[in-house]
Design goal:
Elements lengths: L1 E10 L4 E3 H4 L7 H8 L3 E3 L8 H16 L8 E5 L10 H9 L6 E4 L5 H14 L5 E8 L12 H4 L5 E10 L5 E8 L7 E2 L13 H6 L5 E2 L1 H23 L8 E4 L4 H11 L10 H4 L6 H11 L8 E8 L3 E8 L1
Parallel strand pairs: 4-5, 4-6, 11-12
Antiparallel strand pairs: 1-7, 2-3, 6-7, 8-13, 9-10, 12-13
Length: about 325
């Protein structure tokens, strides 16, 4: 038994924040942001309308429509996010509630930028084991509410954004859709990209000092992340190719995690892939962490860049550090 992706969908908030909008409260410029990240605009959530769970619901509903199945056929939810609506429980059960699927299991994954591929691998394993036949994998984030929206936070507030993407996997006894997945982590670099608080090991989980010191906001060592990312991306992609006997020439479309356009372009050059075989949308959506790959998959499909029989390669690197890849026969 194998798994295949039968539907993808996405949702992004209506609130568009351009680089020129950021210039109103951050000492930056459109040229500075685009040169370093490739981003022109991003989406930030509307607190009166958007939650992680209901954005995931909208993405799921689109994926269900495209797959041509009803929500009650879903047997397991795997929800990747580092920004759940509550400290606990995870947003998986909230999505389950919104879809009206009481009783089915909901699993939450906190692997940041690699979260969707970790979720995809988990869903694939459940299906291959014969435990479930139809699994929903979602990546959704609201990061804008944790950003330092001052010049001091310029290394992160120009990058991170909000959105949701979903993929539905279903069992097949024919040719596998998900050919291989590869997951890695190295906790020695956990503090290079993280949000420190509120952490349960503090004497007081949320104190005045924590608020004043901004330790609940995103910290990133940008140079460190870039240096590790370009190495790990190439490694984990080659690992997937070797496992399946494929080469870079066999890839029809490469969708990297939308961390930074410069990282994606560096990896593209290392793999010697033409522009026609790489899909990037970070220029419009910023870095939506676990949501970035499924959002890009959904957009690529609706733009006709993913067709039956295509070999899709996805890869991610991020906080943890964690990194992952997958090869998918579309």
């Amino acid at each position: 038994m194998y798994s295949k992706i039968i539907g993808v969908g996405h949702y992004v908030p209506e609130n568009v924040v351009t680089n020129h909008d950021l210039m109103k409260f951050v000492d930056t410029s459109d040229e500075w942001i685009q040169e370093r990240t490739g981003i022109k605009e991003r989406r930030w959530f509307n607190p009166e309308k958007d939650t992680v769970a209901n954005m995931a619901t909208r993405a799921t509903q689109l994926a269900l429509t495209r797959a041509g199945i009803a929500a009650n056929q879903i047997e397991l939810i795997v929800f990747a996010t580092i920004t759940p609506d509550y400290f606990f429980p995870g947003s998986g059960v909230l999505l389950q509630r919104e879809l009206g699927l009481a009783g089915i299991p909901a699993l939450d994954i906190r692997n940041a930028c690699s979260g969707f591929i970790y979720g995809l691998s988990t869903a694939d394993a459940y299906i291959r084991a014969g435990i479930h036949k139809t699994v929903l994998v979602v990546g959704a984030e609201i990061q804008s509410s944790a950003l330092d929206k001052t010049t001091a936070g310029r290394s992160t507030n120009v990058i991170f954004a909000d959105g949701a993407g979903a993929a539905i996997l279903q069992a097949t006894d024919k040719e596998p859709g998900v050919l291989t997945t590869h997951l890695h982590a190295d906790g020695n670099y956990a503090e290079e990209l993280y949000v420190k608080d509120p952490g349960s090991s503090r004497k007081i989980r949320l104190s005045k000092d924590i608020v004043e010191n901004d330790s609940f906001k995103v910290y990133m060592n940008g140079n460190g992340v870039f240096k590790h990312a370009v190495v790990r991306f190439e490694e984990v992609i080659n690992e997937a190719l070797a496992a399946t006997g494929k080469s870079t020439e066999d890839i029809d479309l490469f969708i990297p995690h939308q961390a930074n356009l410069r990282i994606s372009q560096f990896v593209q050059r290392k793999l010697n892939l033409p522009d026609s075989k790489v899909f990037n949308n970070i220029m419009h959506y910023g870095n939506t962490t676990a949501a970035s790959i499924p959002i890009a998959m959904s957009e690529a499909w609706e733009q006709g860049k993913l067709n039956p029989g295509d070999l899709l390669c996805i890869a991610a690197f991020g906080s943890g550090y964690t990194w992952a890849s997958a090869l998918i026969n579309w």
